[in-house]
Amino acid sequence: MNKKKILVVDDNEDICLTIKQYLELYNYIVEIVHSGTEALQIINNNFDLIILDIMMEGIDGMELCGIIRDRVDCPIIFVSAKTLEEDKVQALSIGGDDYMTKPFSLKELKARIDSHLRREERIRSNDRHLLSSKNITIDLLANEVFCKGVKLQLTKKEYEIIKLLMLNKNMVFSKERIFERVWGLDSESQLETVTESIKNIRKKIRSLDKETSYIKTLYGLGYKWDVTYEKG
Predict the structure, then answer these.
(1) How far is CA 226 from CA 32, 36, 140, 204, 230, in A?
(2) Where does the chain have alpha helices with state H?
(3) 174-204: string of b/e by CB count within 10 Å (b at 16+)?
C-alpha cells in the first residue's frame, strides 16, 4: 500500500511538528513548510492532501489557496484560529474542502484526513472518476466533459458549473451560490456571468444533443441538474 503524502503549511513550528509526529505514527509521509512562499516552491510535488493555515505573513492561506487551486486537485483542509462564519465560507468558496478551528484535536484531524482521502480513492478507483448522466459523461480526473462521446469545448468555469451540478443532482443552487463556489467571493466578475455561462453550456450541449435538457431553471430559486426529454 502506497503511503499518502501530506503537506502542512503553518507558520507555527510547534503545530507543524506536532501534526507531523502524530500523522507519522499512522504511516503518513508529512512535509512541513512555514510560509506560503515556501509552499509555492514545492507545491508541484505530488501531495495527496494539504493542511493549510490562514493567518501567515506574506502570502496567507486564503491567497495561497487561490494561487494553487488550478494546479492541484487534492483536498485542502484549512486550520485557523478564525472562528467567524464568513471566514469559513470564504475558505470553502475559494477551493478549500474542509475547515477546522484552532485548537483542534489531532484525533479529529486524522479522522477528517482519512475521510477526504477515502473519498479521493473512491473517485479514482474502478473508473469511478467517470460520471455519466444520459448522454453526458464527465471525466473528473481529466477535467473534461463529453456529450455523445464528443468532447465539449468548455471554459474552466463552465466545466466547474457542470461538475458542481452533476455531483449534486438533487440540489438546487442559487445563482449566488454557484458564483461563490465557482468564481469565489473575491472575484471581480459580475453575478450575471453565471447566467451567461449556463446559457453557453446549454448551447454547446444542444449542438450535440437537441432532444435533452440537462440544466433546469427553477425561477426565483436557481438551477439544478435535471435530465428531461424535449420533443422537437
Answers:
(1) 44, 41, 19, 17, 12
(2) 13-24, 36-42, 61-68, 85-93, 106-124, 156-167, 175-182, 192-206
(3) ebebbbbbbbbeebeeeeebbeebbeebeeb
CA-based torsion, 205, 206, 211, 214: positive or negative: positive
Q: What is the pLDDT of residues 75-110, one digit of tens each?
A: 999 999 988 888 888 888 888 889 999 989 999 999
The maximal CA–CA distance of the chain, rounded, in angstroms, is 66
State pLDDT tens for residues 19-68. Answer: 999 999 999 999 999 999 999 999 876 899 999 999 998 899 999 998 88
Residue listed under C-alpha cell 509521509: 29
**pLDDT: is 170 or 147 the higher one?**
147
Strands 136-139, 144-147: pairing kind: antiparallel
User: What is the mean predicted confidence (pLDDT) over 156-163?
Assistant: 94
The whole-angstrom separation of Cα 3 and Cα 21 is 15
Sign of the four-CA dihedral 216, 204, 120, 79: negative
According to DSSP, the residues that pair with 183 across neighbouring strands are none
- 16, three cell numbers: 507543524
The single residue listed with the C-alpha cell 464568513 is 86
Report pLDDT for 232.
46
How far is the C-alpha of 228 from the C-alpha of 212, rounded, in Å? 6
Give the HSE-up count for residue 77: Cα atoms under 13 Å, Cβ half-sphere.
Answer: 23
